[in-house]
UniProtKB/TrEMBL annotation:
GO CC entries: cytosol
Keyword Repressor: no
UniProt keyword list: Activator, DNA-binding, Transcription, Transcription regulation
Entry protein name: Lrp/AsnC ligand binding domain-containing protein
GO biological process: response to amino acid
Lineage: Bacteria, Pseudomonadati, Pseudomonadota, Alphaproteobacteria, Sphingomonadales
Source organism per UniProt: Sphingomonas liriopis
Length: 150
């Protein structure tokens, strides 16, 4: 990866719908060279996909919650069972196994606190291996970005 690849990636992170023509002009490349570089970045796995960002509040998912999950045992079978179940929960946007005082950190989106209470009581606590959860409701989203510093 060189400086031109980094320039292309910064531009694509800012606007994933930019046309090849506009991207080439913005980065000082010919359209053919730009297309070839982006194609190579996709083929090598640097670019993993494209997506559309949505406003959660306008789609009934205004409340963001972070949940610490402590499992009752830390064994491969418990980790695998927990992960398999979490992958099927649409409310869980992210799930990270972490080192420290708990095992997983979940990022959850729901409509409001009442919806979270239902999710917690009827879904989350029934997942295999959970010993304890701690809930942190987000009061204000100070910074949220999908752009990596390049």
């Amino acid at each position: 990866m060189d400086a031109m690849d980094a320039r292309l990636l910064r531009a694509l992170q800012a606007d994933g719908r930019i046309t090849n023509q506009a991207l080439a002009a913005q980065c000082g490349l010919s359209p053919a060279a730009c297309f070839d570089r982006v194609k190579r970045l996709r083929a090598s796995g640097v670019i993993t996909g494209y997506t559309t960002l949505l406003d959660p509040a306008k789609l009934g998912r205004a409340l963001m919650i972070f949940v610490e999950v402590l499992l009752d045992r830390t064994s491969d079978d418990v980790f695998a069972a927990f992960a398999a179940h979490v992958e099927r929960l649409p409310e869980v946007l992210e799930c990270h196994m972490v080192a420290g005082g708990f095992d997983y950190l979940l990022k959850v989106r729901v409509a409001d606190m009442a919806a979270y209470r239902v999710f917690l009581g009827s879904t989350l606590v029934d997942l295999p291996g959970i010993r304890e959860t701690r809930t942190y409701a987000v009061l204000e989203e100070v910074k949220a970005t999908t752009q990596l510093p390049i």
